[in-house]
Please model this.
Amino acid sequence: MANMQKMIRNKRKITSSTTPLQDICYRFSRNKTAMVGLFTLIIIVLAAIFADAISDYDRLAIAVNASEIFQEPSGKHWFGTDFLGRDVFARVVFGARYSLSFGVGCTLISVTGGCLIGATAAYAGGVIDNIIMRTLDSIMCIPPILLTLSLVSVLGTGLESIMIAISLGSIPGFARIVRSVVLTVVQMEYIEAAKAGGVSTFRTIVFHVLPNAIGTIMVNATMSIAGLIIASAALSFIGMGIQPPAPEWGAMLSESTIYMRTYPYLVIFPGLAIVITALSFNLVGDGLAEALDPRMRD
Amino acid sequence: MYKYIARRLLSIIPILLLTIFIVFVILESTPGDPAMIILGRDASPDALNALREELGFNKPMLLRYLDYVQGIFTRFDFGESYRSKQPVFDNILVQFPTTLKLAIFSVIVASIVGIPLGIVSAVRQYSLTDVALTVSALFLASIPGFWLSLLLVLFFSLLLGVLPSTGIDSWKNYILPVATLALPSAAILMRITRAQMMEVWKQDYIRTARAKGANEWRVITKHAIKNALMPVITIVGMSFAGLLGGTVIVELIFGMPGLGNLIISAIKLKDIPIVMAGTIFLSTLFMLIMLLVDLLYAFIDPRTKSQFKR
Model:
């Protein structure tokens, strides 16, 4: 990928009119694997939004249909039907809603929390910085899955509770990244120039520090979505997340394990859905990282 | 150097206390009355009150935390299980070896697979091999562990019938769980080794070695690997520390009597002392391993080492 980019870059006429954003978009669009990821992702998002038009939630994804149990994949049921006669394709399509909201929702919570905490630590410095950082260190010592499980047992298995339980574990990581990015940016000469020019601290943070830190934060956020989607599916898989009748991919896998010897397709399709979604987020994240890398800039 | 080690050792004490505090506060807020869990639903109010008194549940949380910490540090007392009334620490010691074995085998397999592939990938940069390896590493990072283990069970246990899917009776039982845990770690190790090798590959001393007529093999083994693998050691240590706490789901799927399985069943039974002790135990191990990795790194890297001699 990257050597191809290099070749293309040499051929490309660089005009003075391109903005950094155009530059990043251009470099991203030349990255084939990243574009494949983005394309797949758009399809998944569209499927989640228009799930009702693609399939029927009440009739196919939820209703028990005793006459159609364990049908192999066919033209009528693309992914077959499960032990209650529910259409697996319909369930996978509606499941995208859960996974996307978990992935994006949890990332938003962790990034917001991480930005607030990290920026506070970096700007406050001294004792406050020390206390915040040691607390984050402590949280990071707790195995993420155990932290999530403990929080779920306190908060319950509602959608919001699960989201919070999963997000809390990844806040420290983001806070550390944001803190270190802010600390480096703050030392830059243009920040000194802004200060010397009499710009207020708030304005400095919002207009000068954050825009220069946003690239790193965005790359890390995109990369973390995949991990959080997997974490939420894992939680449902062990029965501590979204509960069974709901078409969540992890919960579907958990329900199907006892039938997998005879009907392996029941564990193949929901799993593939998780892998494809996670992989596309990872590909896009990878592409973003490459496109935003200042060393790749011409 | 000794001063550095002593300082690092002292610095983990507050973090350890804080970690215990966080776990304690979270789990103490779990809904449900411990006295009711122990005595059952139809216990008399007097008996419940007496038990609460005995267990200290009518004291403020901070005092209970101090008692708990004192118990841990003075006599390894993590409390008693609500269900079996056995000391929790004994329970942990019985179940821990399985988890430890899983983590050790996995980190060894991951290193044997991941590091050489990373080196190959970097040396053959942008070749077909490199692209294939990089893409498969990204693919492996996107596979949920629990699904990977289901696929492995499906293929090796149910379809071919060559490997057992549950239990810990023989070494064969460890193959599938270790494969599940090792593959994603191998992918991470590969990516990092590749990045490190590529960084080193650009250094002047590599060009010097080449200019002096060293052949490619010698450049890789004598000059590049030694420098590139330094940070990789940290990642191996981190993977090991992460694996110790990350075997939970794999233990559950493969029915292995490890710490993860113990904690999950305790969570479902609301047996809080076991959950608390297990989580604290694994967090402490994580902390100690990371400290050890740090110290080891300072010890083997001549650049860091020289800083402390001054």
